[in-house]
Design brief:
With 624 residues, the protein is of the alpha+beta class. It has 17 helices and 23 strands. The strands form five sheets. It has an eight-stranded mixed beta sheet with strand order 2-1-10-11-12-9-13-16. It has a seven-stranded mixed beta sheet with strand order 18-17-21-20-19-22-23, with helices on one face. About 3% of the residues have low confidence. It holds the Pfam family FAD_binding_3.
């Protein structure tokens, strides 16, 4: 959402379209949507709305709706969205070609030759493109990844599920008034499933149902006959909802497999083929890591491609994309797996241990049982699972039954101690930090991989802002001084341009930092790198006090004076960043800090700054 603030009001539009937070802040655990509730977890806290650590709050918004908004932004930028039937000629500039699939990739002297196929008037046709860079953002089953022979590493087949996307205004209105929530974990003797409420007001839902192949098949959930398809879905929904819905409209049914994997590498073919998003990493859908990590991938990569194509950076800067983003994906994979396993602790407490279910499934799939016909295997599997679901009977799960009382007590403890599925991870959402890449790492910093490999259980840490190289620039409200003083407060994140490549040097109004800022401007001009200087003054500074910036930075004009818009009890900017006012920080176009130093601790300003810009941009001629 912080990144979307820079995309022509996208964040504001999402906020205007998303459901009110009170309708999705809770996860509810129940026997059915109208039956007894085992417990609920509220995942929002007051500090999530006070905009202290970020200028914007989290959002709950469907991916297909987000994609439509992104396409609208592209059209406003002069792009046109074309279906295969609308495409004529061979001029593809500023066109979004829908319905194309990559089928071949071949290196050429100038770059790449990419083959695609598409359906036109009932026939498959092919088209070739010549490009300098191919970004593979084609999802978890990425064809681009397979064509360049990049393997995935991690845990496979954590769970098989069927996803049923459906509409029911009646169900939405009932839950909106009686039991609002985002996720509904439903456990009863007849069925088990997770209902995702995308929009209660519109009655839009996705139901996730576990299944075990090959005994259970996707064909069990779908038929060529549309009437039968609706019947099957209505039966499943009936078992989970608790009453027959008369307005169910099934939109889609898809099987999918939950994996926790990261690509062995992100960059191939001499920095010309690059993987982003689900093509590069596949997480369990536990914590929102998939989409957020993918969007961060694109944000990290975009400024580097732009810098390379404009001649600011060396082609080797593309390698820093993998250096920075892959360790983050590895870390987030571990965290999402731990969060998924926490979700499994709830059915385990109720007497439905998923580990036992998986063991039963493995036994039935073993060579010992392979002698039995598939129909008998399926009958045995479903019979055993039916016996297992009997643990959810009200005869067992009640306070008067000693076993049921014990299980309900265990479940309450899981909820009270925050050991169930979590929605927010502040330290990871905002506090992720690159340890190497297009930055100047501080001495003694540990590599991210060592931290990621030590993740054995979730640690719901708060986000603590800091200004170490590799971290995101902390948010603080500031006011522009001088002629802009009448404007409302804005975030330090807004100092970074959203529509052009520009680096930012943040300093305090002291002699040594002004000197370093002048040297930075000189070196940036030599490297042809746009640079702006921001001088942060204490709260209450007057326009007269800041006139010195113009003299100190002469002849350079690209600077801005701002003051802290802090409350009397708040920390200063330098205290927030855990640094002294003698220090300066250089911020990249993606809002990550590239360099930090003491302004009075450099022997040769120009030589050090040439080294810094060389390291950031992948140039070798000034490296020492």
């Amino acid at each position: 959402m912080e990144l979307f603030r820079k995309l022509d009001g996208l964040a504001e539009e999402i906020q205007s379209l998303e459901p009110p937070v009170d309708l999705w802040r809770r996860f509810i655990y129940c026997t059915s949507l109208s039956g007894p509730v085992f417990g609920s977890v509220d995942h929002m806290k007051p500090q999530d709305f006070d905009k202290t650590v970020s200028p914007i709050s989290v959002a709950h918004f469907s991916q297909y709706k987000l994609m439509n908004l992104l396409l609208q932004r592209l059209e406003k930028l002069g792009f046109s969205v074309c279906s295969p039937s609308e495409i004529e000629g061979s001029i593809w500039d500023r066109k979004i070609l829908m319905g194309h699939e990559c089928i071949s990739i071949h290196p050429t002297n100038e770059g790449l030759k990419v083959g695609t196929s598409y359906l036109k008037e009932g026939k498959m046709e092919e088209r070739e493109f010549h490009c300098s860079i191919l970004v593979g953002s084609d999802g978890a089953r990425s064809t681009v990844r397979k064509l360049v022979d990049i393997d995935m590493k991690g845990e496979r087949n954590l769970q098989r599920l069927v996803s049923v996307h459906f509409l029911s205004k009646d169900l939405g209105q009932y839950l909106l008034h009686e039991r609002p929530g985002m996720l509904f974990f439903i456990f009863n003797p007849d069925a088990i499933g997770v209902l995702v409420a995308h929009d209660l007001d519109q009655g839009e839902f996705v139901l996730q149902i576990p299944y075990y192949s090959p005994q259970q098949k996707i064909e069990d959930f779908s038929f060529k006959d549309t009437f039968n398809l609706i019947q099957v879905c209505e039966q499943i929904i009936l078992k989970l909802v608790g009453w027959k819905l008369v307005d169910v409209q099934v939109l889609d049914i898809k099987p999918w497999v939950m994996h926790a994997e990261v690509a062995e590498k992100y960059v191939s073919h001499n920095n010309r083929v690059i993987l982003v998003g689900d093509a590069a990493h596949r997480f369990p859908p536990a914590g929102g890591f998939g989409m957020n990590t993918g969007i961060q991938d694109a944000h990290n990569l975009a400024w580097k491609i732009s810098s390379m194509l404009s001649g600011i950076a060396s082609p080797s800067i593309i390698q820093t994309y993998e250096m920075e983003r892959r360790p983050i994906a590895i870390y987030n994979t571990s965290l999402s797996v731990e969060n998924f396993r926490a979700a499994m602790s709830v059915p385990a407490a109720l007497g439905l241990d998923p580990a036992i279910a998986n063991s039963v499934h493995r036994v039935i799939n073993s060579s010992l049982c392979s002698i039995f016909p598939p129909s008998l295997q399926k009958f045995a599997l479903e019979g055993i699972f039916s016996i297992g679901r009997a643990q959810l009977s009200e005869l067992i799960l009640n306070e008067n039954n000693p076993l049921g009382s014990l299980r309900l007590s265990r479940l309450k403890k899981i909820f009270d101690e925050g050991k169930s599925l979590q929605l927010q991870f502040p330290a990871e959402d905002l506090g992720f930090c690159y340890k190497e890449g297009a930055l100047v790492a501080e001495c003694g910093e540990k590599r991210w991989e060592s931290e990621a490999s030590s993740v054995h259980k979730r640690d719901l840490r708060p986000y603590i802002p800091c200004a170490k190289p590799g971290c995101r620039l902390p948010h603080m409200l500031i006011n522009a001084l001088k002629e802009s003083s009448a404007k409302a407060s804005f975030s330090t994140l807004d100092l970074i341009s959203g529509d052009k490549i520009e680096f930012l040097l943040i300093i305090a109004p002291i002699k040594g930092s002004y000197r370093l800022a002048r040297a930075s401007m000189m070196v940036a001009k030599e490297f042809d790198v746009p640079l702006k200087v921001c001088i942060i003054w204490p709260k209450g500074s007057s326009d007269k006090n800041v006139n010195s910036s113009e003299k100190e930075l002469e002849p350079w004009k690209n600077f801005i004076d701002v003051e802290e818009a802090v409350k009397p009890t708040s920390k200063s900017w330098w205290e927030l960043c855990q640094m002294s006012s003698n220090e300066v920080i250089l911020v990249r176009p993606d809002e990550h800090i590239a360099w930090r130093t003491e302004s009075n601790g450099i022997a040769d300003d120009l030589l050090e700054l040439k080294r810094v810009f060389s390291l950031m941009l992948g140039h070798g001629k000034f490296l020492l």
